[in-house]
Write a structure and sequence with these properties.
Blueprint: E1 26-33, H1 36-42, H2 51-67, E2 71-77, E3 80-85, H3 96-113, H4 115-118, E4 130-137, H5 140-169, H6 174-181, H7 186-197, H8 206-210, E5 212-215, E6 227-229
Antiparallel strand pairs: 1-3, 1-4, 2-3, 2-5, 5-6
Helix pairs in contact: 2-3, 5-6, 5-7
The structure holds adenosine-5'-triphosphate (ATP) (2 copies) and magnesium ion (5 copies).
The site of one magnesium ion has 4 residues, from loops.
Binding site for Mg(2+) 2: 32, 79
Subunit structure: Homotetramer. Interacts with MFN1 and MFN2; functions as a guanyl-nucleotide exchange factor/GEF for MFN2 and also probably MFN1.
Enzyme class: transferase
Length: 230
């Protein structure tokens, strides 16, 4: 490879500020679909949870883990996925922008690449975008709390969405359903689902209530993702 040396243009490189991940911290990249409220409507996602879309997200996440061996775990729900790198990763010299951008790029292209496998009868209407960020967690407790936070978010949204769409399916308008749910606590929503629709929230699929965890199986070849746990 040719390398330019001592040119009058060399100085522009110094405008590139280093952005290394701090040592001894867990780098976590979270990607999230851009305006998936619209994307899910345009593509007729089943409400509140379209299993094809959830499986496609997991296929895209698996492809990210195949590309980057230093990702030890991923957690996904709705239109988001979090990727946990090992603390001591040396990938891309720990440059945050590189890690964050290569994850979201591989995720996006894989989402489009695998689309027709999960939606064989539905053509992709436009190219979806995902954003990404990298956050560093200094302690194992911080990392566990981060993952718990995303899972609680999954639970809260899922419970709301189940109630909302059940009410809509029973004939209420979107606004009426919103009004009905305003100010309700989790116990109220449990009760509403049970008394009005005969649904026991705890019996709903774990995939919907808890999201998806992908872990790398160290026993197998480094590249092989054996276990997709719910
Ligand atoms: P890295 O992951 O570090 O970027 P890389 O292999 O992509 O590794 P680059 O310095 O980005 O390295 O160089 C891109 C390479 O891709 C070029 O050296 C060239 O071999 C190839 N390439 C890119 N565009 C073209 C093209 N239009 N025609 C032929 N080769 C190309
Ligand atoms: P932003 O660009 O700010 O992220 P957004 O519209 O993507 O905006 P989110 O908070 O990320 O907002 O919410 C994602 C939305 O995508 C959900 O509210 C839901 O409507 C929809 N969605 C995502 N996945 C599914 C799925 N598997 N089934 C049904 N709807 C889904
Ligand atoms: Mg290049
Ligand atoms: Mg958002
Ligand atoms: Mg989104
Ligand atoms: Mg989201
Ligand atoms: Mg390159």
């Amino acid at each position: 490879k040719q390398v330019m040396t001592h040119s009058q243009y060399d100085y522009v490189k110094s405008f590139e500020i280093p952005d290394p991940c701090l040592p001894n911290c867990w780098p976590v990249v979270r990607i999230d679909g851009k305006n998936f409220h619209k994307f899910s409507t345009t593509h007729n996602f089943e409400k509140p949870n379209d299993d094809r879309a959830l499986k496609l997200m997991t296929a895209a996440a698996t492809s990210v883990m195949d590309l980057l061996n230093d990702i030890v775990l991923a957690y996904g729900q709705s239109d988001e996925y979090s990727f946990v790198f090992k603390k001591k990763t040396k990938a891309y010299n720990r440059r945050s922008s590189k890690l964050s951008s290569v994850v979201v790029s591989q995720f996006s292209t894989s989402y489009v690449y695998h689309w027709k496998k999960y939606f064989p009868d539905l053509e992709l209407q436009y190219p979806p975008a995902f954003d990404s960020r990298l956050v560093l967690y200094p302690s194992d407790k911080n990392l566990r709390d981060y993952l718990s936070w995303r899972q609680v978010d999954c639970h809260i949204n899922n419970m709301y969405n189940y109630c909302f769409w059940k009410l809509v399916q029973s004939g209420l308008t979107h606004v009426e359903s919103q009004e009905r749910l305003k100010g309700t606590l989790s116990g109220d929503k449990n009760e509403l689902l049970f008394s009005q629709f005969g649904i026991n929230y705890n019996n709903l699929p774990q995939l919907h209530r808890k999201g998806t965890v992908i872990i790398r199986d160290k026993e197998r070849s480094t590249n092989h993702l054996a276990k997709i746990a719910r």
